[in-house]
Amino acid sequence: MFEIITPLFLSLIVGGTFIGIIFGAIPGMTATMAVAVCLPLTYSLGLENGLALLLGLYVGGISGGLVPAILLGIPGTPSSITTTFDGYPLAQKGEGEKALRIGIVASFVGGLVSLFVLWLFAPTLADFAIKFSYVEKFLIIFFALTVMAALSSDMLIGIFSGVLGIFIALIGTYDISSGGNGKMRLIPPGTEYWLETGFSLLPVLIGLFGLAAILEQAELGVPRGFNKDEVKVGGKSTFSFSVFRGQIVNLVRSSGIGTFVGILPGVGGSAASILAYSNAKTFSRHPETFGKGEPAGIIASESGNNGLTGGALVPLLSLGIPGDSTTALLIGAFTLQGIQVGPLFIGNNPDTWNAMIFAMLIANIAMFVMMYVAIRYFALVVTIPKHILFPVILMMCVIGAYTINYGIMFDVWTLLIFGIGGWLFVKLRLEVAPFIIGFILGPSAEVYFVKSLESFGTLSIFFTKSWIAMVLWVLIIGSILGSVVLSRRAKGQPDGV
Amino acid sequence: MGNLTEVTIDFERSHLVFPTIIAVVLGLLGLAILIRDRRRIAGSGAYWRTTFAQMDRMRFFGTLGLTLAYFSLMVPVGDIWPNTGMGFLICSIPFVFLSGLLFMHDRTLRQIAPLAIVSVVAPTFVWWLFTYPFFLTLP
Amino acid sequence: MTFTRRTLLAAVSTAAILAQPIAAAAQELPRNVRMVIGSKSTGGDTYQNSAIVADALSEHLGINIKVDAVGASAAFKALDRDSRGTTIMIFHDQSYLGHLYGREGYDDPFATYAIGPTVAINPGNAYLVPADSPYQSMEDILTAAENGEQVRVAIQPGGVSEIGFSAMKNAAAVRSPGSEANIVAVNTGSQSDKNQAMWDGLADVINGSIQANEQFTQLEEGDEKGMRFVWITARPATLEQAPEAGMGDTDRAALMQYASPETSVTLDGSEDFTFDKEFFFLFNKEMDPAIIDQIDTALTEIFAEGAIQDRQKASFFIPNFLPSDEAKAHLEQKRDTYSKVIAEISGES
After folding, report:
1. Distance (Å, rounded) from C-alpha A196 to C-alpha A171?
2. What are the UniProt keywords, alphabetically (chain C) (predicted)?
3. Which of residues 55-84 of B touch A (CB under 8 A)?
4. Window 117-136 of B, Cβ < 8 Å to A
5. ipTM given for this complex
6. A283-338 pLDDT, tens per residue?
7. Are C197 and C300 contained in the same domain?
8. Are residues C255 and C176 in the same domain?
9. C-alpha span between C87 and C85 (Å, rounded)
10. What chains are in contact with A, requiring at least 3 Cβ pairs below 8 Å?
11. Which of C232, C250, C275 is the last residue of a domain?
12. Does the reported pTM lie above 0.90?
């Protein structure tokens, strides 16, 4: 395989990772978009070199999302939503650099763990993944949804917000390509033309987190931002590797969850960090600090979403089925070169397989080095005057919304609708975090729930399907009990809620 | 298990199953909130009055107005030169400049000059990047 | 299509863009064309096909063509809005099958749009059974239905994935009226869902493709993921043009065993049912016909050169250029056949 490793191969990985980080770091741009944009270039590069570029973009794009999530409270990609919960509060205390370092280290560990799993266990895990039918997938989504309760400061309102998120996500067509019947529902009369396919995730996300935040600032008269002196960079940063002491379990668990969610086709990339985050909170000894700048929250979220990278390649390379939207594009790279991906891929193409593993390894290392070096410059983003930063962010949000579905103007209007919606949410004391989680997971929850009943014809199937289902129920109940106990403790009186 | 747990779902109507369940749950939760927080909700008129009284109305509604104009003009302007992204470019430059001006506190030349440069350079660079290397469609 | 060509084009055309707003009396394709496609995936067959054609056309005509994977409903809307030739569309048989199956958002394309040339065929549409299935062939499946055995077929309803299923029902009805009721649909979504339905034991037969499922037919015996082809819907004349090596470890001769005439799913008792997924252009009805002529002429020249065929074949597509008039007649005929099949089975069951 060593003849594959040429200077071109290496520089494509590093260059891809660099571009990926930039895509991930710009609100509204995603890893998926980076891969989509560069896919045509791979035709002339040949398979291994093309994959080197794309895998670099993938790893970089997933990782770059933590930068705006931490510094601006705007998730750069859907999978870094949970990073905002603890990263942004830290940044607001002037500790953005510390948060960035934690996130980058966690991303690196997550990436390596999942790569290791991919390398050693891909075919075995793929065989395990196909044991997950509609029923088990629904329970996984349900488990991820229970995090809504843990994330809300007022449980009743939090759950209401989350269910509202699911409700809004159901607007439009019951998607035929994920198993629906292609019929429309919940569309207000007269809006069918625009709402036929519902609201897209990315514009909703950057509306709620990006535009809404800017509106809030405008309402307050755009208060002056940080001075250079207030931001703790370089010698003043309080980061040391001791934050990771006691976090080994969290790191490994979150990376593992991320990897596993990646392996399950159709569960979706954003669920990885959500599940990792909720587990970290449930098992934490001081769960009340989550959401207020808890390093463990950043660790869980970032190792979870980078764990996805290796995981999502497992079903792609051992079943020919993509694990998330970005790896779905990688199939294109293979077919462009006339290479089949399926259960025989690894055995038939050992060189390509080794080259991919190697490329992922280099991409993770390159990501770590580049981001770690660039931290002090990233951290200074918050010192850019807001009257320059905000308009440019808005413009980038518009471009992201417009290009995410290759040129649909309604996505830009969605941005505005949810920007105003997000501002109203805060005023009405509804909670944005559970809402967005409901919105992301709603459509898969629907398909897997309805399909389970359609296929098995009984509600009891959710309990009797398999031992996997039973394990998931234990986790679900644990998570719900955990949130209830937590909310009582927070109220300081046993009869709360 | 018995018949209680048995469900038959007609595929043709399956698009209504989950929305119905969610709507019911949402309604119940909403009702619970209404009952629990009735006092706060009753007092929300005053809450909104103070919100609007205290807000920086010029900046808030200015932002909304500019954004609305920006979004509305992009497509018609772009339609004059189809598929070139000109709508984005031509609308973004004044939008970035005007909203920057709106957010600015001391509107001195020293402050305005960098903004003016950014408002020309940033959209132009982004437009170039998306139109040529990335080969994506802009309005 | 390379980075440098784009960049060069960029440098030259940037200046020219502002100087020439859309020429109102467009006799030909404008300088910047947007090609929308009926798929949201930039990794799928529609996108690949469209990209190949867009590249060839833009090089040949010296213009810019961007392929936008906006999906069927957004693509139709974009086409509706623009009669200047700045928006054109490529899609496949789904465009009329969606209408025939009564899916929301699908109008009759022959009435609503101008049909342009066909460019290629994806011959991959196939049906598979588990490796350990009692059914060895379509004959077994149809006989089982005749004997009152229920056969569950996993499909994605409302289009290309369902048409072969409808044909099976139709064939069952032709062989033994009433037996079509024993062939039932398991409605699923993507390829991964269909495979999963088989592994979960929810389906006896699944719709799939040569490209995506061939490796599953080559697994070791005893692997629970194993599958076998039972039917490939392509016309024999189409499959004959596939590369001789076929796909993976299945050569063309082996593939042809599963297609008509060796594997027969009858249409009316005498002829076999066949289905080729064909990619073709759609235009706004009001668009200047001169532009269609221009595209026809350009494609005729491109296909005469022969380079495009190599690219299509490398991605397992069968080149199939028909100029607009012939394409329209051909597709209308296909539509009529399938509409009869669909009417037959929905009238009886």
Report:
1. 8
2. Signal
3. 55-56, 59-60, 62-64, 67-68, 70-71, 74-75
4. 118-119, 122-123, 126, 130, 134-136
5. 0.95
6. 888 888 888 899 999 999 999 999 999 999 999 999 988 878 888 888 888 887 87
7. no
8. yes
9. 5
10. B, C
11. C275
12. yes
